[in-house]
Amino acid sequence: MSDATNKSGGWRENKWIRGAIPALLLHMSIGTVYCWSIFSQEIADHIGFTKNATEWAFSLAIFFLGMSAAFLGNIVEKDIHKSSLIATICFAAGMAGTGFFIYYGGNHQHSYLALIGIYVCYGFIMGVGLGTGYLSPVKTLMLWFQDRKGLATGLAVAGFGAAKAIASPIMQAILGENKNGEIYKMFWILAVAYFVMMFVGHLLLKKPAGWHEPSGSENKPSTFQVIKSKPIGTYIGIWLMFYLNITCGLALISQEKMIVKCIGLAGVVGIISTISAIFNAGGRLGFSAMADGMKDRNTVYKIIFALSIAFTAVVIATQGIVKANVDGNQNMLLVILVLLLIFMVNAGYGGGFSNVPNLLSDHYGMSNISAIHGITLSAWGIAGLTGNQMASWIVSHFGKVQNLTYTEDGVAHTIEVNPQGYQYVLYVTIALYIVSLLLSLFLVRPSEKALEAKKAKQAK
């Protein structure tokens, strides 16, 4: 969409007002799903269950995000206003419902009804809102910013990644004010705030006037017909490397807080979490903008996997997590290496998300991109059940649990950590990163666009 068209149409045809701003409003709301770790322990204590039991609410949210995106992709394709409204209602209702069942669980300790209610509200209902809300603005942005699709989608998806950094201090402030354990009030406050944000985004979101969806089954092939029109190995490769990158990212990110405490930085866990969220958002924007200048967008995945392998290998070789802080004596070089690994994994995790829709559009075109992208997001849903759960299983079955004492706000705390267990997680993730790199190198073929660019270069 040209600037001339934007100006002639006024704000109603402005790509920032009708594309970028509503995308940010939607993604910065639903992205707060990653704030779960901030209040999961408080929820567990309030309703009388273990933290491991409540963790399934987050896993289910990510699972239903992927599954709803896969099954509702065609609705997004046909009507972004219907899909963005579904997202708004489901996300806000799921958050409000979560608050209700936390309230109920506080009055009825150890009630399985409260726990199941949280699973349904935070996991299923919010998950549907997440999937439809994530998909709704992506194609719209790609249409408004056809010359810089990576930058545009990276901007919106960066909003999803930055949501944790922005919302975390707000949530912590709300929790701090509720000294009587009234955590459910936070969910009700946020439900209203996010409903307003997402509803404004829903009202503003609009595809360019010049774009018309092909109509009629004779003119528009089904999603699976489009996928099968290219070598099926390419799509399988894209799905698998997307899945493996998310699995590795969630495996490390889910243990990030404990790893930071292990290396002697317990007093600044919140700051490190915010910085890692910024790297997550920066990776979404930076890697996708970088890919705009590449002939083959798959190249950016090769870079992400190669860097992830390199940083993981260094921490494995140096036993960084185990040796960074021994008996209170910090090795600052190892501390820095572990932090660099955390930041790189966050950046690569985010970059993997932002490049998927554009890589798919390069191979399969724009007509079915929402539906194809939705099916591909099923990888995210499955990884939501495998990534952090895999890491938790490794940490609970391998290594040796130790007591770690640290001081925070003048108060001494003692927690159980497993430095060797966290180190073992890296052995699995580096193997998966290597498989991902091999898939990117040998299974995902260059797009027609990339091949044409290569032929043009050779002709010169």
**Tally of strands:** 4
- SSE topology string: HHHHHHHHHHHHHHEEHHHEEHH
CATH superfamily of the largest domain: MFS general substrate transporter like domains
Here the CATH topology of the largest domain equals Growth Hormone, Chain: A
Instruction: Classify the beta-strand content into a percent band.
Output: under 5%
Residue-averaged pLDDT = 88
Helix content: over 70%
Domain count, please report it: 2
Q: Would you state the CATH class of the largest domain?
A: Mainly Alpha
Shape, principal axes of CA atoms:
globular
Number of helical stretches of at least 4 residues: 19
What characteristics describe this protein?
460 residues, Growth Hormone, Chain: A, two-stranded antiparallel sheet, 77% helix, globular, disordered N terminus
Task: Explain the layout of strands and helices.
Layout lengths: L2 H6 L6 H16 L5 H12 L3 H28 L1 H28 L4 H33 L4 H29 L6 H21 L18 H6 L3 H22 L2 H7 L6 H23 L6 H21 L1 H4 L1 E2 L2 E2 L1 H33 L4 H8 L1 H20 L4 E7 L2 E7 L1 H24 L5 H12 L1
Helix pairs in contact: 2-6, 2-7, 2-8, 3-4, 4-5, 4-6, 4-16, 4-17, 5-6, 5-8, 6-7, 6-16, 7-12, 7-15, 10-15, 10-17, 10-18, 12-13, 12-15, 13-15, 13-18, 15-16, 17-18
